Amino acid sequence: MNTKQPFIQHAHHQDRTMKVYMLGCVDFDSLLTLQERALQELRRDQSESAVLFVCEHPPLITIGREGSHAQLVDSHQEFKSGQIETRWVNRGGGAIFHAPGQLAVYPVLPLKQLGIGLQEYKQGLEQAIIAMAAEQSVEAQVQPDSEGISSRCGQFACLGAAIKSWISYYGFYINVSPDMKLLRLVDSNRYDHRLTSLSATLTREASMSSVRESIVRNLVSRFGYRDTPVFTRHPLLNRVKKKVYVHT
Questions:
Q1: CA–CA dist 91, 169 (Å, integer)
Q2: Half-sphere exposure of 143 toward its Cβ, with a 13 Å CA cutoff?
Q3: How far apart are CA 3 and CA 89, in angstroms?
Q4: Count of CB atoms within 10 A of residue 140's CB?
Q5: Gene3D superfamilies under this entry (predicted)?
Q6: Which of 71, 79, 127, 239 qualifies as a FRET site for 119, CA 20 to 30 Å off?
Q7: pLDDT tens, 45-97?
Q8: What's the predicted TM-score (pTM) here?
């Protein structure tokens, strides 16, 4: 376990449990349903308990509150013919192309009960990503005035968080080893930061399982959780496998 001091430091309580769902490739709507259910449970319980969803998504484009149609490099007809859905979502950030090989991480945390604000929450996410990258032998830093985390080769992760009733949802995305041709169908590079992946930075295949384990451990440590049961299934989850054909 990470021996660094937790990002949140105050007395431990019996209900300080983070349920971790380490899931496979699941459809986006299922994760929205799971997050909403977890958010409602946390709002009802008023405890310090939390839920963390870690997964990958089939090819899909989501556009956050700061995004626009101008970020779509190809026409909408091209996306339709390739069976790629485009969704407007209530998270921070702009347009993001999701695909297998990109790790999606959704922390559902009761910020009010933890006694942290929005800036502290964002910093906790950034610190966890940078610490994970260091364990993969990648030196990373926050891109100023943006939602991105970059290495020497470009931006490999981005934040896309949201808050409802002082409970966090959505989260961030890490390009571990996705098909970069797919990701370049969207101009997510609003700040002129070159998109890359951990695999491209390392010039070898990055281990998805190692990245998953590391990011979970660092998030748990940063936000001061100790009791972290891990699940690999969820009764409401739909596992999917979707093929998308891209003409280059």
A1: 8
A2: 21
A3: 36
A4: 22
A5: Bira Bifunctional Protein, Domain 2
A6: 71
A7: 999 999 999 999 999 989 888 776 777 765 455 566 566 888 888 888 888 89
A8: 0.87
Express each pLDDT in 186-234 by its tens digit: 765 555 668 899 999 999 999 999 999 999 999 999 999 989 999 998 8
* DSSP-assigned letters across all residues of the chain: ---SPPSS-S---TT-BEEEEEEEEB-HHHHHHHHHHHHHHHHHH-SS-EEEEEEE-SSEEEE-TT--GGGBSS-HHHHHHTT-EEEE-SSSSSEEEE-TTEEEEEEE-BHHHHT--HHHHHHHHHHHHHHHHHHTT---EEPTTSSEEEETTEEEEEEEEEEETTEEEEEEEEESS--HHHHTTB---TTSPPB--HHHHHTS---HHHHHHHHHHHHHHHTT--B--EES--TT--B---------
**Owner of token pair 């942290």:** 116
Contact 55, 104 (CB under 8 A): yes
Taking the C-alpha atoms of residue 242 and residue 149, their distance in angstroms, rounded to an integer, is 28
Mean pLDDT to the nearest integer, 29-58 = 94
**Rounded distance between C-alpha atoms, residue 189 and residue 153, angstroms:** 14
CATH of region 18-231: 3.30.930.10
Sequence spans of domains, the chain: 18-231
